[in-house]
Fold:
Amino acid sequence: MSNGERNTKIESIQNILIDKHIDACIISSSVNQFWLCGFIFDGYIYIQPKDPAILFVKRPFNLKDDRVVFLRKQEQIPELLQKMKHTLPSRLMMETDYLSYNATVRLQRALKIDEIVNVSSDLRNLRMIKTSEELAQIKMSAEVHTEVYKKIPSLYKTRMTDLELQIEIEREMRLHGSIGIFRSFGENMDIFMGSILAGDNAQAASPFDYALGGEGITPILPLGANGTILKSDTTIMIDMAGNYRPYMDDMSRTFAIEQAPDIAYFAHEISITIHNTIKAFAKPGTPCSDIYNTALEIVKENNLEAYFMGTDQQAKFIGHGVGLEINEPPVFTPRSKETLEAGMTIALEPKFVLPGIGPVGIENTYIVNENGLENITLCEEELITLK
Amino acid sequence: MSNGERNTKIESIQNILIDKHIDACIISSSVNQFWLCGFIFDGYIYIQPKDPAILFVKRPFNLKDDRVVFLRKQEQIPELLQKMKHTLPSRLMMETDYLSYNATVRLQRALKIDEIVNVSSDLRNLRMIKTSEELAQIKMSAEVHTEVYKKIPSLYKTRMTDLELQIEIEREMRLHGSIGIFRSFGENMDIFMGSILAGDNAQAASPFDYALGGEGITPILPLGANGTILKSDTTIMIDMAGNYRPYMDDMSRTFAIEQAPDIAYFAHEISITIHNTIKAFAKPGTPCSDIYNTALEIVKENNLEAYFMGTDQQAKFIGHGVGLEINEPPVFTPRSKETLEAGMTIALEPKFVLPGIGPVGIENTYIVNENGLENITLCEEELITLK
Structure:
């Protein structure tokens, strides 16, 4: 990360502290540390309205950065601040969406703070608008993502299971530089490397907050592939992680096993139509709710409402921001309050689940430019046949 | 899970509520839900000192269990409790080590609670003693783990990198039923599928709280394999996840690339000696600190202190409990307060990092039986040569 980008990011937090009359802010989550520094550590970024940021570091012992102050435990922070002639804070911002209750209270007590204010929602809003360096990473991730998806037809073997195909895709992902770990925000977001759904497993309701569900292979992770044998006249949707760089893209593609019924082709084309319709009007200033509602209108016109985003349990969104986490703001629901802004990176995933057949539709990642949406997931969109 | 096991677990929490004069307890983390129910859901297990547990469920919509009460949001809990003629709680236990600060406070406000008390440490202590069903799962996981490790020599190719070998092992793991996701407790515990360390990469200090570090392949996950080419006269340590069942085992084995210097064989044998020495005396009642100190004594006698559990940054423990999370209590440090109890499952990992060569040593998982330690990771312990 350039020094310029680093300073701009610190200043954006300092402006929040000034606006809200808050004395300091402490950042310790790995995504927000990485966003601010370009590296992560066991410790705390301490930001005050005016002074340079301080990195209080426990581990690694050899972290090289001229802002580092080493410490053993957070209880030393007040003493270290006093030595450095800083006033102790009385109002403090913390990442209360990320930190556990106990970790938050321990820090609060260590710094003898009465009032803590959440900074994680501000940080998620700041991270929503990507820098040019971040956009370059997301584009590179999408290019590799496409290379991996192009290999899928060669990985398919007759009568294999969804899981067997997923395992071969996971291997290709890793050989292409996937970092493995797949970061998401919030509770109910467990996942491993992405989701593959074949046939009626796409109808299985899950406890997680993803667009679609799936039974999974274990009751401790009921999501995604469940060992379904890939059968002719069914479909399989591949929604594996675009985690080839710390900043990620998101992309789904659907395949027909041997062949698929006409309704699968029809509904798949409607998903592509929704993408194209949104792409034709969306630009900075467009309300995110308009994007959801446009999609829903097309779905209704085509009498596909019963299959839209699931069957019995339907997701109430068709897209989300993407970056260091797979679910960043904005979110595209009927009641979204956000509007599109230049620099956002958004994944749109209007999908259908057809009983007896499987899931269809595509997911693309778009960069919001001044003129409109730029699709960066440039990968065949039609229903491809595996045979 | 049998009904008997389920009831015993609920009762163990009810006894804590009675002992501590607390009105109710809410469980929503997936590990503790799974431990108590054998499945997970988006929602809350509500336990009172006497009445049967209630499952307040948001998703999935079709969860089948006669204790289920569906709800849309946690703010409905008081109203639902009143309808069911339950008294509203005034003192409540919550999983404050697992839940974010904001999630905790939202629940606290929803239930209008003044005082919340941590239940997550009690639950970690309860989970420390495994049931016979849990022990059976851990043993099965260890058996599959051994099958996968036996394949390692056949996966090795001359001049491959640590990462290339890891990717082939990951594939074998998944083909053998690894569930992928690797659960750990606490902050600074990010990891993907385990750790492989070759040569001097084992000396790289990491921000994470694992036994050894490694540079990793990305600054957002600085841990493990870094693309080191496997070279003759160096070693590679395989410490991949034993996540073949929800209840896990933990095992590390070390390999010599083509051949290894005598000191590698010597230090590796000391690791095995430490295991055998501990196995000869440890039993229910043994202080966990004695186990650490016995190991350290042997290390000192053999002048290997400078290489024990790292070089520049050395871990201060040689083992930990294992179960639904990879780092459960007890932990084996010089200052551990716990003593061994029958039903514990512990992983011991006395390891050395030899500059210019690499890591050596083994990690085994033991069940603590009435008579002593039972090794369940029955896999060749000697330094195996890859060629």
